[in-house]
Amino acid sequence: MRRTTVTALAVAALLTGCTGGTSSEPATTPAGATSDATDMAEETEATQTSDPREGEPVVAQQVVPDVERPDDTATVGVQSLTVEGETMVLRLVVTPDFASVGDSEAVPLGEVFNPSLFFGVSLRLIDRENLKEYSVISEGNRWWATGQRDVEALRGEPMYAYAVFAAPEDDIEVVDVVLREDYPVLPDVPITR
Question: Where would I find the beta strands (DSSP E) of the chain?
Fold first, then answer.
């Protein structure tokens, strides 16, 4: 597990960040985003760059409703699920369509997934063929995923997020992506090697 974590650190350090649709200046998610707001802010400032995934095609997507506010929905698309050495990187494009906010009010990533939990906590990859589950790599309170408030977007505008998992233990071609327990599963998302 230590080797996987070290590899994840190296991969996450190379990842470019996530640009929200409302930012006038490109913003990125730092490598090893944390649930600690101060650490996230400092690391985000230190690693700002543009997001090369803008315009990348989507291989799977679904519209997800907010459980407490059914008129607030978001389209979540998987841009890629790529094995990179001993890790696997999930890249998402998230487009909020929240009726509860005005056209000029940005929606942070955490509002789409769960305002009270860190984004990486709810994500899982399911290998149905071998009955295995993969969670976002974490070390203490550091999750290798975009932070709750690292990215945001206006209604109808995309924002980009990532999460890092251990590479599959078996030679599989697809996994199911669980975005959150009460969201429908995205089945058979292809793995790129």
Answer: 60-65, 72-84, 87-98, 107-108, 124-127, 132-135, 138-139, 142-143, 152-153, 159-166, 174-178, 186-190
**Count of domains for the chain:** 1
**Which range of residues forms the domain containing residue 90?**
2-190
CA distances from 100 to 1, 117, 154, 166 (A): 43, 21, 12, 37
Q: Is 20 exposed, middle or buried (0-12, 13-18, 19+ CB in 10 A)?
A: buried
Rounded Cα–Cα distance for residues 94 and 76 (Å)? 5
Q: In this structure, what token pair is assigned to residue 174? A: 């697809």
Tell me the Ramachandran region of residue 121: left when phi exceeds 0, alpha when psi lies from -120 to 50, beta otherwise.
alpha
Q: What is the pLDDT of residues 41-67, one digit of tens each?
A: 333 332 222 344 667 889 999 999 887
- This prediction has a pTM of 0.73
Q: What is the DSSP letter of 57?
A: -
CATH number at residue 7: 2.60.40.1240
Which residues neighbour 28 within 8 Å (Cβ) at sequence distance 6 or greater? Answer: 16, 17, 18, 19, 44, 47, 48, 49, 51, 150
Among the listed residues 164, 72, 159, 166, the one whose alpha carbon sits nearest the alpha carbon of residue 109 = 159
